[in-house]
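Rather than argue in generalities, we have chosen a single entry, letters for residues, whole numbers for local backbone shapes, without further comment.
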Amino acid sequence: MTKGKKILFAIILIVVVALDFYHPPGSEHAVHFWWQKIPGFDAIFGFIGCFLLMLFAKKVIYPLFSREEDYYDR
């Protein structure tokens, strides 16, 4: 990943988390669980979940389905 893409990703992440702190008047909703009161929780939870899913796919799923380079030449 190039430096420009990393910076763009960081900016988008900051904007998404910052927007989660902004609640326009009249947009209050009832919270059902204690973690829903934490500002930015949904964005952080989604980011961590995405990271763990990619890690699982690379370390567990990929070795199960990968083949040797000359698999079809045999």
